[in-house]
Amino acid sequence: MNTLMNISSVIYSPNTWLPVDVTWDHLNKYIDNTIFIYSLPIAVILMIMKYFLERCCFVYFGKCLGINDTKVKMVPPNEILEKAYINQKLQEKQILSLAKQLDLSERQIKKWIRIRCSQNKSSKLRKFCESGWRCFYYTCSFSYGLIILWNKPWLWDINHCYYNYPNHVVTNDIWWYYAISIGFYLLSSISQFFDVKTKDFWQIFIHHMITNLLLYISWLMNWIRIGSLILLLHDSSEIFLEMAKMTNYANYQRTCDLLFIIFTIIWIVTRICIFPFWIIHSAITEVSKLMINLSFYIFSTLLSLLFVLHVIWTCVIIRIAYNAFYVGQVEGDIRSESDESDIENFDNYTIRNDATSYTEKRSHRKQTH
Fold first, then answer.
1. How does residue 349 score in pLDDT terms, banded at 50, 70 and 90?
2. Would you place residue 119 in the very low, low, confident or very high pLDDT band (cuts 50, 70, 90)?
3. pLDDT of 269-307, one tens digit each?
4. How far apart are CA 281 and CA 276, in angstroms?
5. For 315-336, what is each residue's pLDDT tens digit?
6. Pair 313, 206: CB distance under 8 Å
7. Residue 21 main-chain phi, psi, to 5 deg
8. pLDDT at residue 159 greater than cutoff 80
9. What φ, ψ does residue 347 adopt, rounded to 5°?
10. In sequence order, which ranges of the chain are alpha helices (DSSP H)?
11. What secondary structure does DSSP assign to 312-337, as a single string?
12. How far lies 157's CA from each of 99, 141, 187, 225, 241, in Å?
């Protein structure tokens, strides 16, 4: 019992988290921890807005653009095929074995599997609506963040994030910026399990967890100034990503290509250049002058992990851009209405897809022409 009390006293000790001679009572004069309570109803409000915008506004908008909610053909029920489909990837030998067992042709088995695979795919209209919601949120969040931070000194001189720390008063506009952001990422962490599944589901899940932890820790430690810069920086590129996806679903390929180029430039500038060399560098160097304790190591580690995810996704972006540019140079602007680029499989804070399949599809069309 005494051991647990000693561990608890060390964990909650101001020396473990705060600068020397700073207490929790002193820090609580500047921050209001009830924000975490308010963020729950904000998340519910955002969920209602998401439901309304996706199923009313963006559905109507998508249909006006000619995006149809295609009905997926259902396969006839077959317990043996269903069990084989769910438990393993079917190889040629397994397909032949199933054909003999069920007295069906190999072609019938493959057709059943192909239709069964299509049942798991979401319609373009649903993807369009989800991208529309994210585009709406990121546009509003970035615009609001830019407006309220425009006159803040730390937007132009990051050293103001550390001057006179921790005696930083949180104004109402910053409070709302943080509260809405916490609510949104809380909602995203939950809705991810119900939205369209992406190839990098777990990377996105880790990203959401890191973002939530950064928001909570930066608020509790009154690192809100540096936290607001991180939020603004990350929202900027997401707008063009979601717009590119929406135009891709609507088959506006030239517009999609242009938006993807803009997105790629903004992503690299903000996530690969500004974030590590401006945000992370200042956070590590300046915070270490104020204190080197558990909070410093946690905050630095989370920022570094976030940057690692950025690097992974940037490699995918560059690969996709290179393949698309290479194929485009060979093939010109030949694009059919059925053409689906890798942008279709991208998701929120990021870029994720198989660029090889994109290249193969378009190279195949070139050969057939």
1. very low
2. low
3. 999 999 999 999 999 998 888 888 888 899 999 999 999
4. 6
5. 988 887 777 666 553 333 222 3
6. no
7. 70, 15
8. yes
9. -140, 170
10. 2-11, 14-17, 24-27, 35-52, 58-64, 79-87, 92-102, 106-119, 124-149, 153-156, 172-191, 201-220, 224-249, 253-267, 281-290, 294-331, 355-368
11. HHHHHHHHHHHHHHHHHHHHTT---T
12. 69, 22, 32, 11, 28
One-letter amino acid of 211: T
Secondary structure (3-state) at 76: coil
Mean pLDDT, the chain, as a whole number? 80
**Number of residues assigned to the chain:** 369
Is 345 in contact with 198 (CB distance < 8 Å)?
Answer: yes
Give CA–CA dist 147/149, Å, rounded: 6
Query: Are 91 and 113 spatial neighbours (Cβ–Cβ below 8 Å)?
Result: no
Are the beta carbons of 129 and 55 closer than 8 angstroms?
yes
Check whether the bond before 166 is cis (ω within 30° of 0). Answer: yes
What is the DSSP-derived secondary structure letter of residue 348? Answer: T
Q: Alpha-carbon distance 76 to 292, whole Å?
A: 63
Confidence of residue 139 (pLDDT cuts 50, 70, 90): very high
210-215-217-218 Cα dihedral, nearest 10 degrees = 130
Which tokens go with 142?
């970035």
Say whether 223 sits in a helix, a strand or coil: coil
Structure tokens at 258: 């242009």
Provide the CA 171 distance to its chain's centre, in angstroms: 28
In terms of Cα–Cα distance, which of 217, 244, 199 is closest to 306?
A: 217
Burial (CB count within 10 angstroms: exposed 0-12, middle 13-18, buried 19+), residue 234: buried
Of 208, 207, 231, the closest CA to residue 218 belongs to 231
Q: Span 3-32, mean pLDDT?
A: 76
Tokens of 313: 């996704």
CA distance 124 to 130: 10
With b for 16 or more beta-carbon neighbours within 10 A and e for fewer, the 111-131 pattern comes to ebbeebeeeeeebbbbbbbbb
pLDDT of residue 7: 59
Determine the Cα–Cα distance for residues 91 and 88; give it in Å rounded to an integer: 9
Which of 30, 50, 32 has its CA nearest to residue 42?
50
Q: What angle do CA 236, 242, 248 make, to 5 degrees?
A: 140
